[in-house]
Design a protein that fits this description.
Blueprint (H helix, E strand, L loop, with lengths): L6 H32 L6 H34 L6 H6 L5 H28 L4 H27 L9 H36 L10 H26 L5 H30 L12 E2 L19 E4 L4 E4 L2
Antiparallel strand pairs: 1-3, 2-3
């Protein structure tokens, strides 16, 4: 049986991994800037909003790793020869920098949850009933996350994150993050897959919605896996949970910007499709349409006549 991870090991490995992932996030964010700024004329209001959210996730991740860098220098340099050593400083939960960093982490996580719920709401034709549970879970996540930070600020010295005063709030926050990620991803995947099946008989090109489904599922898998491992490690009272805790902030940014980049690039490629390949003569509008325009912009010029008997617009007449 392997030896348990010590706090001094957990702090070192967590900071190193966060630095690696942050460097990867910088590259992803730079690519996101290039892609979005290059597609300014084709951007919708939704695209611009997502672009701004991407910038916010980068700012939060930058603040998070900056505070952690300062904490590591204070712990392993300034307090290395003092009683308790680096852990004597880094292990104090009520330190302002520890509390502030956890506020940044909670904010980044809640922001990611809000974006997932918003995307789900858009895909389901702005049907609030579909997203009411994930929407309420955002409030539960905010309450449990910021309540944990408030307890950190006033907790007694010598306490750990596994104390009873914190245990229920932290488990609630982690569990909600996992559950909401599963629910929102499943709802979006179901909606896209159902729309693809319903429109398959009307499609005259090889283009389909499965690549969009793949983008959402693949990008969400990284964040979901990290959250599940984090929850398991915390329930097991393992110090290794610090490692996962610190890397969640850049992972959220990577996940969000990866989705934005891949969908924007696909949108740009789809805009070159000729209108003659997108419509057929005297064809009816296929059922089950989902509003993909906030995510994929396809410019189509067509003339539409209205048939009062069938109650359907006839496209391409």
């Amino acid at each position: 049986m392997s030896a348990p991870v010590s706090l001094i090991q957990a702090f070192l490995v967590s900071f190193w991994l966060e630095g690696v992932l942050y460097g990867f996030f910088v590259c992803i964010f730079a690519l996101s800037l290039a892609v979005n700024l290059g597609a300014t004329k084709q951007q919708t209001g939704h695209s611009r909003a997502m672009f701004i959210v991407g910038i916010v996730t980068f700012i939060l991740a930058t603040i998070h790793i900056s505070i952690n860098c300062m904490r590591m220098l204070r712990g392993y340099v300034d307090h290395s020869s003092l009683p308790g050593g680096p852990v004597g400083y880094l292990g104090i939960l009520s330190q302002w920098d520890h509390v502030f960093n956890n506020v940044i982490y909670a904010t980044q996580s809640i922001l990611g949850d809000c974006v997932a719920v918003y995307r789900c709401w858009i895909l389901w034709n702005r049907n609030f009933l579909v997203v009411c549970v994930p929407f309420l879970m955002v409030f539960g996540s905010a309450v449990s996350g910021y309540m944990t930070c408030a307890i950190f600020a006033k907790i007694q010295p010598g306490s750990t994150v596994f104390d009873k005063e914190l245990d229920a709030w932290i488990k609630t926050f982690f569990a909600i993050a996992v559950a909401q990620n599963i629910i929102t991803t499943a709802l979006m995947a179901w909606r896209i897959a159902a729309a693809d099946r319903q429109t398959s008989s009307y499609r005259v090109t090889k283009n389909n919605l499965i690549p969009i489904l793949r983008i959402l599922v693949e990008s969400a898998a990284l964040y979901l896996t990290a959250e599940i491992i984090l929850l398991i490690l915390y329930v097991a009272n393992s110090n290794a949970q610090y490692i996962l805790l610190e890397i969640i902030t850049p992972i959220i940014g990577i996940t969000f910007n990866a989705i934005t980049i891949r969908i924007t690039l696909r949108s740009q490629s789809n805009q070159s499709v000729h209108v003659g390949e997108m419509t057929s003569s005297n064809s009816r509008r296929p059922p089950g349409n989902i509003p993909l325009h906030p995510m994929i912009t396809v410019n189509i010029t067509e003339q539409t006549d209205y048939d009062p008997e069938s109650q359907w617009p006839l496209e391409g007449k």
